[in-house]
Design a protein that fits this description.
It is built from 19 helices and 23 strands. It has about 525 residues and is α/β, with parallel strands linked by helices. A hairpin with a 7-residue loop joins strand 2 and strand 3. Helix 10 crosses helix 11. The radius of gyration is 23 Å and the shape is globular.
Amino acid sequence: MKAELVLRNGTILTLDPARPQATAVSLWHGRILAVGDDEQIADDIGPGTRVVDLAGAVVLPGFDDAHCHPLGFGLSLEWIDVSPDAAPTLDAVLQRLHTAALALPPGRWILARGYDETRLDVQRHPTRWELDRVTGDHPALVVRTCGHMAVANSAALALAGITRDTVDPAGGRIVRDASGEPTGLLQERAQEFVRQLVPEPTVQDLERALRRAGERFLAHGITSVTEAGIGRPEELQAYQNLRQRGDLPVRSRVMLYIDQMLEPAERLGLRAGFGDQWLRIGPLKLLQDGAGGARTAAMSVPYPGEPDNFGIAVYTQEQLDDAFLRVARLGSQAAAHAIGDRAIDMVLTAYERALRHYPIPDHRWRIEHCGLLRPDLLDRMARLGVVAVPQPAFGFYLGDAYRRNFSDEWLALAYPTRSWLERGIPVAFSSDTPVIPPDPWVGIRAAVRRRTRTGQPFGPAQGIDILEALRLYTAGGAYASFEEREKGRIARGYLADLVVVDRDPRTVDPDELPTLRTVMTIVDGRIVWEA
């Protein structure tokens, strides 16, 4: 048996305890045939083998982004970019909206994403009236970087029927000024008043979005992703269409939102794990609270300067208990977005009650983000065997806002990687893109250095070493998705999903990790991206 592709004359960081390092690897039929030194792998080279001289470059297992939004990421690439890098001031945000308004036909929606009020010069959210000045008659929606709140202009509010008399929805808030007039800022489920009016993308739009997102993932060496929630059949159809045509850029797991998808899953008996190596159904998921930077994460203490603001808990305990009891009865994997300690507490209570009624061996139920912890919550996670799925780069991109919103005592257990690992809690790293960019090296640096964008400490005692961070960004995602026997290390028989980078991350100053350059990305034994 001769290999189809051989990589040699490099450094192979296998993340396999049985053989941590090698100089060459051979691939055959989408699997790893052998790992060894150049002389050993020479036996796998035949007349039809493609041989790549790595010239000292470094090979790692392909990155696995365990929680992101490929559909939202791909679609957002067509939205107006008002992120801090593109529009650092309120005037810059408004200018971008004005330029779009001039180019669009009358009545067409203006959609923008990525602003962060904590990094705007005015240190506050835009208002509907400011949007009105530049958007004219166009309805407009400007989504914050976290996706948990958005600002609508007056035209959009009017279409949604939102007035000073509109009652806040359960799990959401219409922010109002001192006179009671809506400012345009819609938090959590209040966004749905406006979002439901925005024309839904077609299946073809969604397919294009997945291909666009996939190109970005491959450029970063990301070979597997978990779509962190879909609620429309068209979204699953887009994934299936690309899989059927062989056009899915990266291996994908798809979470199903409980609100929209639990009942159909129950009727069909559809559980996590259904699918193949390219496309699988993932956990059934719900969102229990908001975001820490936006002050909507559900906390047990009020936010500084806002004695009545404890964040937003989307579901009551009774509703959580019922939802996860049904998931456990179905025998499926479960996941919940929970960032604040109060939200995490409520989710763990629901998990404990559901799994007591319907025990699932090796359930690997997950908490997505799992942001602000207390020691008792860490102990409960360990006892229950819950998987933590954090975004280490949140500490870098959003950490300065967290420092304003939470005390040092809270930050000491914010996304606490070291504490999780010390208690034996499984951890899978991720990006949550498009909330933040998908570059794994920014997340790995953040996990090691634990510093914010401005260099401030972010729970520094929770830092881990580079090899552990690499493991959590590869094998961590594989474990969280029951795929650890075929992903996450470079070993014989594992899937041939690899990334080649120009330097050894172990020898790079941790602050310089994001300067590592992807040379090549391999999926299923095929070179699918090259610098």
